[in-house]
Every structure is written in C-alpha cells, then in structure tokens.
What does this fold into?
Amino acid sequence: MNKKDYLDRLEALLSCLPQDKRTEAVSFYEEAIDDRIEEGMSEEDAVSAMGPVGITAEMILEELPAVPRVVAKTKRKSPVLLWVLAIAGAPVWLPLAAAFLLVAVAVYLCIWIVAACIWAVAAALVLALPLGMYMAWCGFVTGLPAFAVAQAGMGLVLCGIGLLVFSLAFSASRGLATLSQKWVRKAMSPFKRYDAASFDGAVAA
It folds into this structure.
C-alpha cells in the first residue's frame, strides 16, 4: 500500500469525525510517513511502519475523550442511529447534562466563595483599627482613658491580625486559582477535543 492509498483509507475510516479533526489526523500521519521517507525508508516501508490502517484509525478514536468517542463510534456505525439515540435519549441525557453543569458550576463557585470569605475576614479585621481609634477618641472625650486605651490596643491587635490574614488571602487566592483551573480541566475532560499529542500516542503505540 502506498502513501496515498493509506491516507485515503484512513480518512474514510475517520469519516465519523468532524472535517477539521479528520484533516488534522490525516495530515499528522502524512507528515509521519514523509519523515520516515526522509530518513531513508522506502514509501512502502514507511507506510508499513505506521501499522494497519484499521488499527491506526481505532487508536485515534480511542484517544478521544469519553463523550466524543461514543458519538464518533456511534456515528460510524450508523448516523441514523446517532440521531435516534440523541432524540430518544433526550429525557435521560438532558437532565444528566444539566445536573453535571450545575454541579461543575457549584463546585467552581464554592472554591471562590472560600477565597471571598478569607478576604472579607481580612478586611473586617483591618477596619477594626479605625473603629478602635474612634472608640478610643470617644473614651477620651467622655473621660474614660482606660476604655480608650483598651479600644485603641484592640484595634491595633485586630488590624495586625487582619494584615496577616490578607497575606493568607493572597496565598489562598493563588492556590484556589490553580485549584479552580484544575477543576475546570477535570470537568471538561470528558468533552475536551484531542490534539496532536493524541496522534503522537497513537504512533508510539
């Protein structure tokens, strides 16, 4: 089998994929064959090194995330079956998809609510300083110096704690930003499109 026959057959077996992804896969394997030819292999040997075209197509499909993989394989078996399943299964998959989306958004919001709470606590503690100074002034005006000193000292202590919490809030926000990004990637992993790394894995296999 020459390069053209191999690539034509591969494209036909991947007809269940969107056009852009099918073109991307075929272009990747065309480049892989060309690289082997440049290394001194004959065209037939370079094509043979890719392995059976059917197995190559299966490996590409297996590299897809869960949802696109199921859709692609169902479409390959029968496009009509895909539509039937989509319509008939709508009462099941639509509520499940909505629930998944709500859970994903809820977890994401919870992550940032934690950060907001830390910042709110820090701000409240820092604001204790002007409040303490106001109460101290009131104490001096009313002739209660002990009360005034206590309020000023408490304001300073709480403000100091607030500054420490602000530092914690900065660190926590960075950590929570990383956590939220990981969560988004995890939540999208069943749907995320594959990239060239998928084809690398297929060739290596």
